[in-house]
Amino acid sequence: MKHGKKNARRYIVAASIGALLSAGVATGAYAGTTEEPSAPAAAPAYQPEMVKALATTLGVSEKAAVARLDREADQQDRFAELRKDRVDTLGSFFAEDGSLVVNAADAKAAEDVRAAGLKARVPERGESELDRIKARLDAKALKSAPAGVSAWSVDLASDTVTVEVNGDSDAATRSFLKAARSNGDAVRVVKGQEKLETQAVVPPGSRMTFNGYLCSVGYGAKDRSGKQVLVTAGHCIEDLPALAYNGTRFAKGTHTRFALGTRSVDMGIATVDAGNSIGLDVTTYGRAGTVPVKGSKRAPSGAALCKSGQTTQWTCGKVGSYNVSVTYTDQNGGPDTVVTGLASSSVCTQGGDSGGAYISGDQAQGMTSGGPTNQRCNGQVNSPGSSYFQPLDDALAYYGLTLNTK
Fold first, then answer.
1. Does residue 40 carry a pLDDT above 80?
2. Where are the beta strands (DSSP E) in 208-292?
3. What is the DSSP string of 117-158?
4. Beta strand 196-198 with 363-372: parallel, antiparallel or unpaired?
5. N or C, where is the chain less crowded by C-beta within 10 Å?
6. Taking a C-beta distance cutoff of 8 angstroms, is the pair 153, 344 a contact?
7. Residues 10, 332: contact at Cβ < 8 Å?
């Protein structure tokens, strides 16, 4: 990379996704109860704060919110069975009423979808065609970053590639929009959006430090040889530093796919030192205990989602789109960076949240990448806002990792 160490650190974000469990490094994040219960209580099916957040968002009771989450899980299972049976589908998404809508390739596939108790439609385009359009836009943006285009993504609900414009009108932006509009109504341009940035600050009191700077603790996983690694946002370990927790080293950055001003994917890993390990629970910063990580099954668009991060702590919303590309603006005057392979959400984040954990139910979803430059969350779980995260399953697949789970 071309910029100096100090400048690079401004992209590093302090955020914790859970307790770091290792001798001499950290203890449990929360104390247990003072009395032993007479009988073990059944674990709740869903994280309580997620239920509260969903109930508030929908304006329904918590009982109704649980029923919706149950319905979402059942529909996802049915969709998985359809794919196992090789029914020709083109993606799926949750509608506002909580119904999973399946894009069917043809009338026969639609019949199979309905027979499984799911809603079906035969779209004009569908996921595969939209992915091809977006790939062409990615290729153009990677040659010259369009500063006036905040993000572009496949939106299954509208059956379009949605392009979000922030108002700048540089040559690269004009050329990008011309290419986008050449696809006719397959591309939807939305104006009046904010510029984006990787949410990087260097606040005191962070859970992870290196070279006098602060960053975040991510998910724990193991590679094919059984070696333990930390999975985090790539811009958090851009210079592959040694990482410390409470002043004690526990890991060393080894790989990142993020580099300022060049083609980037916001994923990276660090090797965990012998004797240390990454916790298996996501912290909610005292709002609802901790959330166990039991897998990394990707949640469809529209599914309930919460994230843990150092600055805004525990915030919730919904999954937006996958296969999202963004243009990150360097607030320190450096070059713009196009990042591909992200997911969007309505979860509110701010500077300092990068690397924070996104989770849906007990399924890990990803790590905070960035968000609107001037966004300010209101301190509530359901703070209105938006953010972008690096899907965890893509990082696990790319590096050949197996997520550590309970």
1. no
2. 208-210, 213-215, 219-222, 228-232, 242-245, 248-256, 268-272, 281-283, 290-292
3. T-EEE--SS-HHHHHHHHHHHHHHHHHS--TTEEEEEEETTT
4. antiparallel
5. C
6. yes
7. yes
* Nearest CA among 217, 210, 205 for reference residue 19: 217
CB 203 within 8 A of CB 214: yes
- Catalytic residue, candidates 112, 266, 281, 330: 266
Residue 100 CB burial class (10 angstroms; 0-12, 13-18, ≥19) = buried
CB-based contact 234:264 (threshold 8 Å):
yes
Q: Answer for the pair 273, 252: CB distance below 8 angstroms, yes or no.
A: yes
Structure tokens, 64: 């109704």
How are beta strands 119-121 and 100-104 bridged, if at all? parallel
Confidence of residue 201 (pLDDT cuts 50, 70, 90): very low
The answer for 402, left when phi > 0, alpha when psi is -120 to 50, beta otherwise, is: beta
Mean local confidence (pLDDT), 6-31: 26
* β-pairing verdict for 187-190 and 160-165: parallel
pLDDT tens digits for range 80-94: 999 999 999 999 999
Of residues 25, 78, 65, the one with CA closest to residue 249: 25
Per the residue annotation, which of 92, 206, 321, 354 is the catalytic one? 354
Name the strand (E) or helix (H) holding 188. strand 187-190
In whole angstroms, give the CA distance from residue 233 to residue 269. Answer: 8
Q: Is residue 354 annotated as part of the catalytic site, yes or no?
A: yes
Question: Is residue 169 among the annotated active site residues?
Answer: no
pLDDT of 20 over the 50 cut: no
Catalytic site residue from 235, 264, 296, 369:
235
Tokens of 60: 């329904």
